[in-house]
């Protein structure tokens, strides 16, 4: 999609360090980490909301979720990790391309606000 930051990372038009890549998605480091380790898992296909997913897209997201724990060493998942998907303005979604935050490396509080 035009003018989408994450599509440009996927296509290589914008350079960024790719920590992991397969046919489904890329993983990059978040530019403004909210935990000691903060990665973003970004599907190569552009869509904004889980609500837009086709059956094929939901299989894609399932494969991404299954792959993340296989990357425990690379992502330094350590003693536990948190996955976050912000959806919409109230949740604080700022990039309109679905992505999964992967947070780890520290004890985390549970405070959605
Ligand atoms: P959201 O707020 O949409 O759930 O998450 C978007 C994330 O993308 C934020 O955590 C933000 O720090 C990150 N981000 C925004 N711009 C860039 C960028 O240019 N490079 C990287 N690596 N991360 C970015
Ligand atoms: Zn996009």
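^ structure tokens above, recovered residues below v
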């Amino acid at each position: 999609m035009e003018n989408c930051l994450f599509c440009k990372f996927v296509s290589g038009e914008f350079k960024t360090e790719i920590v992991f890549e397969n046919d489904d998605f890329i993983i990059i480091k978040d530019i403004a980490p909210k935990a000691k380790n903060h990665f973003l898992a970004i599907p190569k296909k552009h869509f904004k909301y889980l609500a837009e997913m086709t059956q094929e897209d939901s299989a894609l997201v399932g494969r991404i979720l299954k792959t993340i724990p296989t990357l425990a060493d690379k992502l330094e998942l350590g003693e536990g990790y948190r996955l976050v998907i912000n959806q919409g303005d109230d949740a604080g979604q700022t990039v309109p391309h679905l992505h999964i935050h992967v947070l780890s490396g520290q004890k985390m509080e549970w405070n959605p606000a």
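The longest helix spans residues 55-67.
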